[in-house]
Design a protein that fits this description.
Elements (H helix, E strand, L loop, with lengths): L1 H15 L6 H25 L6 H5 L2 H15 L3 H13 L9 H18 L3 H23 L6 E8 L3 H11 L2 E10 L3 E9 L3 H12 L6 E6 L5
Antiparallel strand pairs: 1-3, 1-4, 2-3
């Protein structure tokens, strides 16, 4: 009987709980979330390293941040809505085509903006955004000094000698490691190297000089991070 009484009291509490929302703060939070998401989108387009269409991807940031702000503002005012949100999220599955970890990191940052503003943590959210934005800006210069590092170079062609390829690579690369070498039919060669460059200029020179070895040569550069 005691258990049934407590259950009834809890159900009555959920049914009678009034939702108190500060509409002036809601409007302010939505505007701030939109502004921060817009700035984040600019940072992503300018300093992101993703090879996807960053401008198109970042166009979703404002909607995501504002929607998260609205959801948290409503849900935090009612325990019943909080429990309902948990149930809804267990049913709805989001299947976003996330191709690179960086995209996921920026989406989490958008959600964090919405969570902070929706929960009323304006100062903390603004402070954290400024710090994280500074880290994104600083990261750009750190990775800029490491451009063209750790590339996979695949060379295929007819009438080419391996020693001639290595001679060209040693001339312009800071490091050369042979990873695969195959001799195919009709005097065709297929070789894969792990190479390092310290500038785009040297990469371009390697390409031009390798093409002088054979007219049928095919050169492919791939970022090593894509294989990690």
């Amino acid at each position: 009987m005691v258990g049934e009484s407590k259950l009834a009291t809890f159900e009555q509490f959920l049914a009678n709980q009034q939702i108190q929302i500060d509409y002036s703060y809601l409007v302010l939070a939505l505007l701030i979330s939109a502004v921060l998401a817009y700035i984040l989108g600019k940072l992503y387009v300018r300093y992101g390293t993703s090879i996807s269409n960053r401008k198109k991807f970042s166009s979703n940031f404002i909607l995501l941040a504002a929607t998260t702000t609205l959801i948290i503002t409503i849900v935090k005012s009612s325990l019943a809505l909080s429990l309902g949100l948990v149930g809804a999220l267990s049913i709805v599955r989001f299947r976003a085509a996330i191709k690179e970890p960086e995209e996921l990191a920026f989406l989490f940052l958008c959600i964090a903006i919405g969570l902070g503003l929706g929960a009323g943590q304006l100062v903390i959210t603004l402070t954290a955004f400024i710090v994280i934005g500074g880290l994104i800006y600083a990261r750009h210069f750190v990775y800029k000094k490491q451009e063209n590092q750790n590339l996979y170079l695949t060379i295929t062609g007819k009438g080419i000698q391996l020693k001639d390829i290595i001679t060209v690579l040693n001339k312009y690369c800071t490091a050369v490691h042979l990873k695969r070498f195959d001799e195919l039919k009709e005097n065709e060669l297929d070789a894969a190297f792990l190479v390092d460059f310290d500038s785009y200029t040297k990469l371009e020179k390697v390409k031009d000089e390798l093409k002088t070895l054979s007219k049928s040569i095919t050169i492919t550069y791939l970022d090593k991070s894509g294989f990690a």
